[in-house]
Design a protein that fits this description.
The chain has 8 helices and no strands. The longest helix has 19 residues, at about 65-85. About 75% of the residues lie in helices and about 0% in strands. The radius of gyration is 17 Å and the shape is elongated. The protein has helices spanning about 1-15, 20-30, 35-45, 50-60, 65-85, 90-105, 110, 115-120. Helix 5 (about 65-85) packs antiparallel against helix 6 (about 90-105). By secondary structure, the protein is an all-alpha fold.
Length: about 120
Amino acid sequence: KMSNKLKLIHCYLKSNGYGESARCLEREVGKTLTFDSEYFSEAVNNGEFDKAVDYVNAYVNPKGNRVALNIVFELRKQQFMELLRDPSKDECTRKFFMEKVKPLILINRYTFEEDTQGMHKTYDL
C-alpha cells in the first residue's frame, strides 16, 4: 500500500514539473520508483556518467541484471574513452580503469570480451 502511495506522489511530482523533488523522494525512500528515461538521457548527454550510473544502480542491481550491467559498462567505457583523450590525466585514467571498468569486466568476462579488446592492450587484465 505504501509503495502505491509513494508511486502516486512521485508521479504527481514529475508530471507537475517537480522532477528534482521526485528524485529526492526516491533517495529518501532508498529506491527508484519509476525509471525516468528523460533524466537518464539528460545525464548521459551532459557527460554526467557518474550521475547516470548512480541512477541505474538505484533502479536495479547491475550484478543481478545483465541489461543493467551492460548499461553501466557502456557508461564507464565511454567515461574511460573520454579520459584517454586527455594526456594530462594519464594516472587518473589508469586508476579509473582499475577501479571502475575492470571490476565490471571481471563480473562477466565473456560478455565484454569483444568490447574490451583494445583495453586489454592498454592495461593488463
